[in-house]
Every structure is written in C-alpha cells, then in structure tokens.
Amino acid sequence: MLATLAVGSCKKDTRELNQNLTPVGALGMPADQYALTLAPASNSSVDFRWDTGRSEDGDNLLYELAFDKEGGDFSKPVFKVLSDGGGVQNSITVTHKDLNKIANMAGIAASSSGNLIWTVLASKGTNRLPGSIVRTLKISRPAGFAEVPAELYLSGSATEGGTDAAKAVKLKKNEEGIFEVYTSLKTGDYILTDKPGPDGKKYYVENGLIKEGSNPLKVDGQKTYRLTFDFNVATATAVEIESVGLWMSAYNTEIGQLSYQGNSTWAAAAIPVEFFQFSWGRDERYKFVLHTSNGLQFMGSSRTDNGSPVGQAASYFYLLPVSNDQWANTYKFDPAADRKTVQVNLYFKADVPYTHLITVK
After folding, report:
1. pLDDT class for 56, splitting at 50, 70, 90?
2. Disulfide engineering: 153 pairs with which of 23, 168, 191, 316, CB 3.0-4.6 Å?
3. Which of left, alpha, beta for 354 (phi over 0: left; psi -120 to 50: alpha)?
C-alpha cells in the first residue's frame, strides 16, 4: 500500500502549453503621424501605450515595442524593447536620446527628417505576433551623433603626444557627449579617437563640424588652445589662450603672468605678492584671468566669499569659470604670502577637477 502511494505521489497533473493568442489590436499613444523634434541632450521622453492582447487560456502575454524602417514588416525590426514590468505591462517610456539612436538605425541621418514606424509584438512561448495596427512617427533629428563616445583623445603630429598612441592627449568629459582640453598644437595634423591606437573609432573636424572618419585636421603654427567638442550637436570650437594672469581683487589688476608648461599646466616660478592695506586691514583676495581669442575669462572659486586657505580641503582650490566681479568668487592667499614671492601652478587635467597650487617661497 505504501509503495502504491509513493508511485501515485510522483504523478503530476500536466497539460500542454496553449500558445494561441490574438495580437495587439489598438495602439493608444502617440498618435499616428505624430511629429517629433528630438532633443537628445534633454531629459525629454515619449510615452507609448496600447491595448492588451489576449491568450486563449487567459495567461499573461509578453509585449515588445518594435520599430522599423518605413515600409518594413517587422520581421527584422531595427530595434525592439520589452515593455515596462519586464514585458507584462502595456506601456513603456522611451527617451529622446534612445529615439535618436533608433532613428539613426533606421537610416534617418542627423540634421534631417524621416519616418519611423512602430507597433507592439505580443508573444507567448515561442509564438510571437506583430500588432495588427502600425503607426508612423515623423522624426526630426538634430545635428550630432546618436552614439557619443565615452572617452575622447587627440592623437597626431600636431599634438603634445605626437603620433605615439600611448601618449594620446585625453580630453575632459564635462557632460555626456561634451569634451574639453587645454593643450598646445603645433604644425602638423591630428585626429580624434575614442580609444588610443588603431582600434579606436576616428573623428575629424571640417568647417567646425565633427564628422566620423580618418581625415586628419591640419594645423599651421604653434599655439595654446581650449578645444571643445560637442558630439550632441556635432560642433567643435577652438579658443586660443593668449596668456594667463594672477589677478588680485584689491588692485583690480593682474600682479603676475603664468606661462604654459605643456600637459595642460600653466606656471610661474616667482610672483611678488603684497596684500593691499585698507583701513580695516590687509586684503589678500585673488583669482585668475585667461586672455583668449574670445575675450577675458575669469577662473575662480565656486564660493562667492572664501575664508583663509589654511587647513582647507582640496576643493577650496578648484577652478571654475566665474564672473569678472572684482570681489566675488575669489580665493585668499595664505597669510604667510604677504610681502613674499609665490610659485603658482594651474592644472587643467582631464581626470581630476581643474585646480591650482600656491606655494610661498
């Protein structure tokens, strides 16, 4: 009797999976022929919603939002993604940034417009059915790259690192798709790459626009620049740094000049410092001024008003673009600097915050 019970307890109630289903029959939003001007650098997004499909046994279906080229049949969509809730919900939110990438996959070029079609695939088991309704998105893409590099380097005979890939000049990533470097260029050429060496994706600049390819940019003469590359809008700017001065608030002028040392560094070995005598005491406030081909750019503290630097954290000395206000966003010299000379170093490095160091001599 026990044996009979044991055998009986091993039997399972099994049934064949019913994969019959009906496709999604109605799409909610966005409306057909919806015109969308993409702003991938923003936080904008688009909500996609649809009616649920049905399976014969009432089980849940999985949903995928699918995009295809105009005229496509979704047999090989250019992109698909599970809906919210791991595919069980009848909605999903897609960012402009992702839609920009999808439009690029569908052959809609940057700075142009085109149509992207979408529907919803419903599936159960191995059975997948495209929706019975297809809608069109009228996409307008901005200039820029759908896929922006995670890192960026300068390489070539015009750069400080030369043609040695191991010495490629790394740029600072200020925001997603936006890179900056303070560096010198000399007669020669350079290319942009997302990886030093032959395996990196290459970019070049033509008439101020960033393009993908290996067409080096020619440089004549030697100058120091702030180079900015914005892949979100595919633009490049080069601003010459003509000189850098140590600017003292109370005198409302520069008290010394720094020279470019290479490797994104400016320095002065010895600048005389004398605090300004007011009736209430001696004033020691300072910041820096860059003379550029676009005019003056002051660099100073994020704080409007600062205390003594003695005992401060490293962040006290960080450099940020600030206004030309005579007193605001300044630092203070170490009290020991009064009537002494100071060594000054400015560092515009790629992997750390821009900063400076004052050493009393």
Report:
1. low
2. 168
3. beta
Distance in angstroms (rounded) separating the CA atoms of residues 257 and 244:
6
Cα 116 from Cα 69, distance rounded (Å):
6
Q: Are 331 and 287 in contact (CB under 8 A)?
A: yes
Q: Which CATH number fits domain 21-140: 3.30.420.40, 2.60.40.10, 1.10.260.40, 3.30.465.10?
A: 2.60.40.10
pLDDT tens digits, 244-258: 999 999 999 999 999
Torsion of CA 104, 105, 108, 113, to 10 degrees: -70
pLDDT the model gives residue 252: 98
Burial code (b: 16+ CB inside 10 Å, e: under 16) for 126-158 equals: eebbbbebbbbbebebbbbbbebbeebbbbbeb
Average pLDDT of 259-276? 98
Residue 60: band (very low, low, confident or very high) from pLDDT cuts 50, 70, 90:
confident
Residue 302 amino acid letter: S
Residue length of the chain: 361
CB atoms within 10 A of CB 104: 17
DSSP 49-88: EE---EETT----EEEEEEEETT--SSS-SEEEE-TGGGT
Q: What is the CA radius of gyration of the chain?
A: 30
Other CB atoms within 10 Å distance of the CB of residue 229 = 23
CA-based nearest residue to 240, from 319, 295, 322, 170: 295
Evaluate whether 29 touches 120 at the Cβ level (below 8 Å). Answer: no
Residues 6+ apart with CB under 8 A from 333: 273, 275, 284, 286, 309, 342, 358
The predicted structure's pLDDT at residue 7:
46
pTM for the model: 0.75
* Distance separating alpha carbons of residues 252 and 325, to the nearest angstrom: 10
Could you report the per-residue pLDDT of 151-165, keeping only the tens digit for each? Answer: 999 999 999 999 999
The H helix count followed by the E strand count for the chain is 2, 31
